[in-house]
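seq as requested:
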Amino acid sequence: MAGQEILARIAILHDAQSSAIEPKLRARGYRWATFQLLTTLYGHARGLVQAEVARRLAITPPTLTEAIQLHLRLGLIEQVDDRRDRRSKRVLLTPAGKAAVKLMVRDIGAIEEQMLKGITETELSVVARVLDQMLTNLEGGDA
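struct tokens:
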């Protein structure tokens, strides 16, 4: 099967990417966990329900609560009541959080260039489609 060891390769790539990115983030005073939280929220103008954030980050709700408190104090995120369920809170980026994501992404652009070196646009397009489909499959959606 052509897909053998795909999960292992994805895990190894994730670890290598994290190791390369971490020093760049640290230079700006951020950690990998901050990058993950902020990029999870980026592009969701209305934010995400905390339970969804925890699920996407594969962390427990108590761990997320700690992270939220830290990032609230840093002014990078805010919490608002969910209109549909008063027991839930939505988490969204502040303007400072959006600016931080843009800075982080700019700072790590060289790492992405290095990672994609020698890969054609056509190949990247196929990889992007395949990864999107894998994500859809894991999230239980139909393509």
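The helical segments are 6-27, 32-41, 50-57, 61-73, 95-107, 109-116, 121-138.
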